[in-house]
């Protein structure tokens, strides 16, 4: 088929590579514009942009689409069979949704209608869901409301992190979109009205650890929000990033946030977490043992202050 591919982050790269390897003609790749990143704020291409250039594919990086009539016309003039969208980051107006012969197909990282919205991977872990997956969806003007074409699922375990789930779903999405395009693309199945949930955009404040919460919920928070936006606590006004933790039995009761031993076991509202990876400002993330050998935080210290 003659396709456009529209995506920006790492999640979308496997799908682009799979479509190219399957022999589809990719007339154009759309991605978010290059932006400053890192400590030096040097301008960087998005992961999809980099992959497209490696494949020798033309890339377009419009900053906006809704009222951009020139982009609408350019997209229409591509004479596409379909457009494949994966975490692109811009809303497609009706003029673009309706332009390809078969419409625009979205690779969405959830089992719709659960977790429509911006952060479905993190939301599934935060909520303690037993499974997640990918849905290939025919796009309409709603927020992830289009008809479903194909889906698959993966079990979530107590060891699942945002990173491992991201990678699994990215690979799954690549497989499913190739399968979808290798068969007649029908109208799809409408999403059920029941079971709709939304995963809003994450902010840094979502990563603040409230030690009065249940240890199991905090474990999910750390697994879901690492590496982005990251989880953190404070000590004497200093931010400590928490990169990993494990559920443990509390050796004794203590106020939430209290460090119970030299292994950085922290009392929670119910149960306890043993911090396994931690970072001070200006330092790299390190294992708890190395952290305690450098500038130890003694038992009895209360985090979150």
UniProtKB/TrEMBL annotation:
It catalyses: L-methionyl-tRNA(fMet) + (6R)-10-formyltetrahydrofolate = N-formyl-L-methionyl-tRNA(fMet) + (6S)-5,6,7,8-tetrahydrofolate + H(+). PROSITE patterns: GART. Keywords: Protein biosynthesis, Transferase. Residues 201-295 form the Formyl transferase C-terminal domain. The keyword Cell division does not apply. InterPro entries: Fmt, Formyl_trans_C, Formyl_trans_C_sf, Formyl_transf_N, Formyl_transf_N_sf, Formyl_transferase-like_C_sf, GART_AS, Met-tRNA-FMT_C. One of its GO terms (cellular component) is cytosol. GO terms for molecular function: methionyl-tRNA formyltransferase activity. It is an enzyme of class 2 (transferase). Its EC number is 2.1.2.9. This is Methionyl-tRNA formyltransferase. Residues 286-305 are annotated as: Disordered. Residues 1-180 form the Formyl transferase N-terminal domain. NCBIfam families: fmt (TIGR00460). (6S)-5,6,7,8-tetrahydrofolate binds at residues 110-113. It comes from the Bacteria. Belongs to the Fmt family. Attaches a formyl group to the free amino group of methionyl-tRNA(fMet). The formyl group appears to play a dual role in the initiator identity of N-formylmethionyl-tRNA by promoting its recognition by IF2 and preventing the misappropriation of this tRNA by the elongation apparatus.
């Amino acid at each position: 088929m003659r396709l456009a591919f529209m995506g920006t982050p790492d999640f979308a790269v496997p799908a682009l590579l799979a479509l190219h390897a399957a022999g589809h003609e990719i007339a154009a790749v759309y991605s978010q514009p290059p932006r400053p990143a890192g400590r030096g704020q040097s301008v960087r291409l998005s992961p999809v942009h980099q992959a497209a250039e490696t494949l020798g594919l033309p890339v377009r990086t419009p900053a906006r689409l809704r009222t951009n009539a020139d982009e609408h016309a350019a997209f229409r003039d591509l004479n596409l069979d379909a457009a494949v969208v994966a975490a692109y980051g811009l809303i497609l107006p009706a003029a673009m949704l309706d332009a390809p012969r078969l419409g625009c197909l979205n690779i969405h990282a959830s089992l719709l209608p659960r977790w429509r919205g911006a952060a479905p991977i993190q939301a599934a872990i935060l909520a303690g869901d037993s499974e997640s997956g990918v849905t290939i969806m025919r796009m309409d003007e709603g927020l992830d409301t289009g008809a479903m074409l194909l889906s698959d699922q993966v079990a979530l375990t107590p060891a699942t992190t945002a990173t491992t789930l991201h990678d699994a779903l990215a690979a799954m999405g690549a497989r499913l979109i190739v399968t979808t395009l290798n068969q007649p693309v029908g109208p799809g199945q409408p999403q059920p009205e029941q079971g709709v949930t939304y995963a809003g955009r994450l902010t840094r404040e979502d990563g603040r650890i409230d030690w009065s919460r249940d240890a199991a919920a905090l474990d999910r928070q750390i697994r879901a929000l690492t590496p982005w936006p990251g989880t953190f606590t404070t000590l004497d006004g200093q931010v400590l990033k928490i990169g990993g933790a494990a559920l443990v039995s509390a050796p004794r009761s203590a106020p939430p946030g209290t460090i119970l031993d030299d292994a950085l076991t922290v009392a929670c509202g119910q149960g306890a977490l043993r911090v396994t990876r931690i970072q001070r400002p200006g330092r790299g993330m390190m294992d708890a043992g190395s952290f305690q050998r450098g500038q130890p935080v003694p038992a009895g210290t209360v985090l979150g202050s």
